[in-house]
Here is the input.
Amino acid sequence: MLSRHADHLFWMTRYIERAETTARLLEVGARNALLPDISGGFRNDWDAVLQASGSVDAFLQKYGDVVQRNVETHLFFDQDNPSSVMSCLSAARENARVVRTALTASVWDAINTSYQELRQFQRTERSKFQLTDLTEWTRRTAYLVRGAITGTQLRDDGYHFMGLGASIERADNTARLIDVKYYVLLPSVSYVGSGLDQSQWATLLRSMSALGAYNWTYSGDITASKIADLLILNRKFPRSLVTSVEQSCEHLDSLARGYGSSTDAQAAARGLYAELADAQVQDIFEEGLHDFLGRMQSLNADMAQKVQAAYLQGLPA
Amino acid sequence: MTDTGIYNEMHQNGGISAAYRNLDQWLDTMPADLRSLKQSEAEALFRRVGITFAVYGEGGDPERLIPFDMFPRVFTDREWRKLDRGIRQRAAALNAFLADVYGRREIIRAGRIPEHLVTRNEAFEKTAVGFRPPRDVYSHIVGIDLVRTGPDQFYVLEDNCRTPSGVSYMLQNREIMMRMFPQLFVENRIAPVDGYARLLKKTLASVAPEKCEGEPQIAILTPGQFNSAYYEHSFLADLMGVDLVEGQDLFVEGDFVWEKTTEGPRKVDVIYRRIDDAFLDPLCFRPDSMLGVPGLMSVYRSGGVNICSCPGAGVADDKAIYTYVPDMIRFYLGEEPILDNVPTWQCAKEDDCKYVLDNLADLVVKEVHGSGGYGMLVGPKSDKSTIEAFAAKIRENPGNYIAQPTLALSACPTFVEEGIAPRHVDLRPYCLVGEKIELVPGGLTRVALTEGSLVVNSSQGGGVKDTWVLAE
Here is the structure.
């Protein structure tokens, strides 16, 4: 297929995934904000959300005050913020519009209809919305698009580029969401293991639709090591780092099989997967959770770069 | 209709014409509330499928719908057969003319067309002289705009030899009508139009360059998603199963044009371009064009790729050349024209210009190179000062204008606020020219939704209708 078309498909699903993550971040923030204030901390919970979204500076410049209403505007409606739900879904839809010929009617319909609804939100008075309405709507939209792709798209190269966009973005986003917790805990390590710590972890799990999964899989108190095991190393959990990277590997392998040749991208994906498959929770904490997550994010980005070079520029190998 | 000068395609002298007989009953089954329900259903379908044209930079919604009127425009088989023959005849003559003016120029030598109208025409492509495209076809999709003034009287308003648009509406209007009113299609034998994409693909494949071996690789070249007709480009690519490319997806290497694909470069044999000549190749035409492909023209000239329509095809659809199309038909085909031209005065000629200036209030005046219904004067609908201002423009540059009598365009019943009322319509069928000359039975009917208006362009309040040809 045309490299540019593959590129649009890749980014279409990345943006859908990113919109969902932004919505999940908002959920984390909103729920953490309902918990008692951490006395003596120098960051509030919304700060952590902004940190994780990677847009603190832009936010402070435009809004100044870190209060819920401003963060909501910034992360949901603001088109100046490239990671806002509005920006992401608009970008996903624009990418889809360009490659309509590569999408089934159902996929296009799912994306386009959601976009029309989003524009309706824009015209509606803000006081009519609860934050949870917006975040749930965003998640439903992502499920709808993903479902339409899974249910109707031909399993050709286009499908695998869509899958690849989603799995690469998801790995990145999972790492980011775990990092929010890191920022919230920053004020003092003495909170580790406290009641407050428990409820914050629970919020993180909830925001990744993982609380149920956690309860089924692990027993006893919520601890950092069990959480890290679930969100990073557990192959049964669909949003874990290892599952996301495994999916990237599978999509890349399918591409290599279809095209009859392998590239640097496959090698990079396999390398990353091998490390995650062998990793133990202790190792991660020895390295430091934040550092480990940072390193995973950069290896994942490096793999994305190689996908770009191998397939999306259309130049002879 | 009380205005006796206008031909109403459905109602005449209290009777109903054969073509529309079944629709009268259909109207009886449509109370106003059902009608408005169906109308909003149709609009929701258009919006949802994304059948929009884009208008950027004017503010408001950039994605607009062309108003769709649910009342179909109908032709009998007998009426269509004449149109069909006339359109194919015209498309053949226009292509013969193009092959001639870029070849031996017999028609000029024979004194039938003044040389300067051809060679000094902006659309005349000097570098195309002496080059023969595959099958000597220059214009592969010819859109011929027709109006009707009586039961048997049709006029060709203009020819479109470059890249006529709107065919996606012909196809989608039909899809939407079939979806909303299936019963109508059971009760009437309506000739299908959905073979268009297959015919178009066959036509494009039939003009692959000589160097092409095996199945030709076809691509549609679009200016991109911000173009107003982008929906149509992607729709056609999808129906034909061919790639929709932008200039940045193509490059020239060796003697061929290549697409950048996920598996490396792939050769392209036929490009159905939906961008203007000037943007095709920055090395040949506008150097600032980001839409084209550097080196494309040299590959084209050496037979490595075909470009549809061929660069320079526009010289045949110029309004000044239009006057000579009946002569072309006689000259190249040895036949009498089946479809009439609208009598036209060319302001470039002194006598004509004098007549035009004396009779502006009764005439329609158009710019020779204009399109989209802009830059024209509709005399009977204009006040004195507008006419005087326009007269000054004609005097300043007479060669830029032609004039035609105000035709009493036929009217077709149309759903309006108050119910049903006649509105003026035109018709654009799409004729395909390759190994054969073919067209599907139908076309795009455009309707002037404003009462009394003769301007059917979508940019100025026009809408569209499904167009039926009843099978025998």
About this structure: Chain A touches chain B at residues 1-6, 94, 97-98, 100-101, 105, 108-109, 112-113, 116, 157, 161, 255, 259, 311-317 (CB under 8 Å).
